[in-house]
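DM between two lab members

TW: hey, do you still have the TonB-dependent receptor entry open?
JB: yeah, one sec
JB: this one, 971 aa:
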Amino acid sequence: MTYRKLSVLTLAFAAAGFSTVLSAEQASQQLQEQQSADSGANSNKSKEQVEVIEVKGFSTSLIKSLNDKRFADTVVEAISADDLGALPDVSMADALTRLPGISAVRTGGQASEINIRGMAGGFVFSTLNGREQVSTSGQRNIEFDQYPSELISSAAVYKSPKASLIEGGVAGTVELKTTSPLAAKKDHNVTVNLRGMLNDRANEIPDGTEHGHRFSLSYQGKFLDETLGLALGYARLFQPSVSTQFVGFAYNAEADIDGAAEAEPNELISEGFEMQHRGGEETRNGYMAALEWVPSDKLTLKADAFLSKFDTEAFARGFRVKFDGANAAIGNPVIENNMLVGGTINRKTNGNTRVELVNDDNTDNDEVLSLGFNADFEATDNLTLNFDLSHSAAKSNFRNGLLWSLVAEDANAAVPVVDPNVSISYLLNGLSLPSVGFNQEAAFTDINRVMVSKYGIYPYLNEDEVNAYKLDGKYRLDNNFLSAFEAGVRYSERDYSNDRSVFEYGSDGMFLSSQPPLKLTQDMVKVVNFSGAFSHFPSYLAIDQQKALNAWFPQGVPQPVQTWGTGNTGILPEQRVTGGPDTAWSVLQSGEVYENVLSAYLMANIDTELLGLPVTGNIGVRMVETEQLATDLTDVGGDATLGAQNIMDEAGLVNTRYKPGVIGQKYTDYLPSLNLNFALTDSDQIRFAAAKVMSRPPIDRLASNTSYTIDAITGKVNGSSANSPFLKPFYATQYDISYEKYFEDSDGAFVAALFYKDIESFINTFTITDFDFAAAGFPIPAYVPGTEPGNPDGLPPVSTKPGDYTTAVNNENGGYIRGAELAYTQVFKFLPGFWSGLGFSGSYSYTESEIQQQVSLGAQTIDITLPGLSKNVATATLFWEYQGFETRLSARYRDKFVSEQVAVEAQTVNFDGETVLDYQASYQINDQFGVLFQVNNLTDEPTKSYFGTPTNTGTIQFFGRQYFLGANYVF
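TW: and the structure you got?
JB:
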């Protein structure tokens, strides 16, 4: 008889925070059920004897993950419930980055977006309990920091698809699951976890919060002779969010600085840079509920709900330096790679070179809701039907309130004026902090010089929801080739809306007589010094934004509105106000997207022998019909015969230029897939997978919002149609092959894999410089509105000029992504004495691609790699367990990669490689009570980025270490 050595399968819940161990009989029965249910199961194998090896603690979760991978019918990486419950990960993003080929993009020091096999988060599709999830970001990929690890019982990353999986992930599909209450070991149990937190950098941040906490409470119960189950969970996170940062801005201007224009292109000039303290508080409250009922042996009903609210209050204090591009006087230039990286920038007469003191307060309220109902019915001995109804909704309300201050000649003057004597000296230092100097430095802390010049608030309101209906059927066969047929149909309706609004008062570059600056008082400000590595930067005034606004607007700050703004052509003449800001973007960038998807699949599960080797797997095809539509405002120049209508905004202004409508397209795709698993021996197997996959464009990029602006000073016209409802998905054909070795004499495995993705197309955004908007049909006036000859204000006329036009297209020039993965896990049980608790788990991934994309730097373009691609990604965990004590050190490394940083606007940059270390120690005092100590980001690893080459500094940002001390109690 064949003996298969298998570690105990555990069923633990992340909300419980502890491990439970099944008996040998239960583990054997569950293994048989899993083998019968999975298409990779052989009926003869279900009768094999299983030797159960009990392993508790962190090693239990590792072996459970290997078992999930071993018996899966696709190329998959898994994290068991024990793993999630044992590690106090702040979110699911942290947990997932421990898997081979998975890396994270840190936002605010926390892992949020994940990349799979060198592809960015936009290529990752995610489900919760098998149901599509929408996001608060306006993208396809969910923000994993929205999902508390305490409320998720298991996670899997499907690197190869099968026809029954919902389409959408070129990189892969992440499946999260909440608990099944009837699978709990005990009839009733309650678990409480509490952890205190400290960030060691918060004391450097003015008004920074040092301490936080995590708390979770869960209940699991079974009733009515274990036919009714209930699970409830609550998880709270309150943590400080702090960082000290330098951010270089994009190179968006050019000039002949060295006087050699005929011999070489003009040099590129950065927009400037900023140095800031950032702080705030993040509060996440997560709720989970599941009710499961088995009224008969043939029917199982389950309803579940998940709700997560993530609220952020954040502030930024410091400087923002604006060079004014080619309009500035540049002395002592330092040029590298045709880019200005140092020099002395002086303000010209009527120029706009300046140093802004930044005092911003932002709020972000995000909410994710997922509801589902599932009925599983065994119609006959061979036929099983499953019906699923789901609702997923996300809301995001981000309000960034920006307060600008400038240096005045004399803040006490009857009519204050901006000090025109501005001189800025700087020299970038690559991935280290730069040298900077300001001639106005002494004035930055003087309320007799500094005045508030502008306040602006620019809310982003996103709402996204999907309702889906799914019916699946499985018919089991008893023959020598196929074990079952599966078929299903799914229909979903998705609605996405994005609303912008605005309120602005004053100017960030000058003092306006019509909206005069605010004189500061001592009770509104305090002097702040930079410290540590940033100590050579000058001190500044941190302003209490609320006190300043109360003084500036004693009747209350007006609320932002969605408005056509002032000074815009097309607004009724009696409503126009010359010289005002152009805020029509708040209307043009708002809109809705509708997406209806009908899909169906047919899949055969394989269970046979080939050349004497057992072969399992599946082959199938998925048909997907997609209809995508977006609301649209087409500029028809006010021609009523072409459909122009009077469109009123929230401020009561009426625009006569646009024709409203709904535009879009409909298309159908067929996605075949094949998964095969060859059992070489009881412990060795080879997997092969091939499939055609797709990822739809980010939902916000299907909006129709072509718009343009006219610079009131230079007359330059800039436009964008970066979004389009006519964008098609990303398509790829992919192949996977892997060898898996599961150790017989000890617990662990070795896995080696190769993968290849042939990317057929992807979305690229191009910027066309010197684009003639008027010649292309845009209704561009000859002069900047308000400066026309003979205008009532008598302003000098400024003629409009060609500028930059940014647009998005489906680039049909694809290419390959290919790579290799290695993973090794070993629990050294064979070592003597207490050393038997020693173990190691690690992985390494290498990924390369021939795909090159282009981004604009001024009038030039440079090639960049595919966003999210790191050639080298590695993880390693060394752990030791002994008589209730457990300690482990974990590291995750990723090579340099391309992504976006957020400054004044989102900017595409190269991020430098990083290594993040975490440490944890815990002791289980008795069966009920345990204590824990943990340090995240042990070395205070910064985030660093650059433009093109490391000499052109992007971001240098430090977040601090997070210390946790806590306990859990089970009763």
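TW: got it. Confidence is low (pLDDT under 50) at residues 1-56, 82-87. Residues 264 and 338 are 9 Å apart (CA to CA).
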